[in-house]
Amino acid sequence: MDLKLYNTLTRKTEIFEPLQKGRVGMYSCGPTVYSHPHIGNFRSFLVADLLKRFFEFKGFKVTHIMNITDVGHLVDDADEGADKLEETARKQKKDPLEIAKFYTDSFLQASKLLNIKPPDKYPKATEHIKEMIDMVKILIDKGYAYVVENNVYYDVTKFANYGQLSGNTLNDLNAGARIEINQEKKNPQDFALWKHDPKHLQQWDSPWGKGFPGWHIECSAMSSKYLGAEFDIHTGGEDNIFPHHECEIAQSEAASGKKFVHYWLHTRFLLFDGEKMSKSKGNLYTIPELIEKGFRKNAIRYALISSHYRQNYNFTFDGLKAAAQAIDKIQQCVLRLTDLGKTGKQGEIREQLQDLAANCLTEFDAALSDDLNISKALAVCFDFIRQVNKTDDMNSTEAAALLDTINKIDSVLGVLEADDNEVPANIIELAEKRKAAKLNKDWKAADAVRAEILAQGWIVEDIPGGGYRIKRGENA
Ligand SMILES: [Zn+2]
Question: 357 CA distance to ligand 1 centroid (A)?
Answer without folding.
Answer: 40
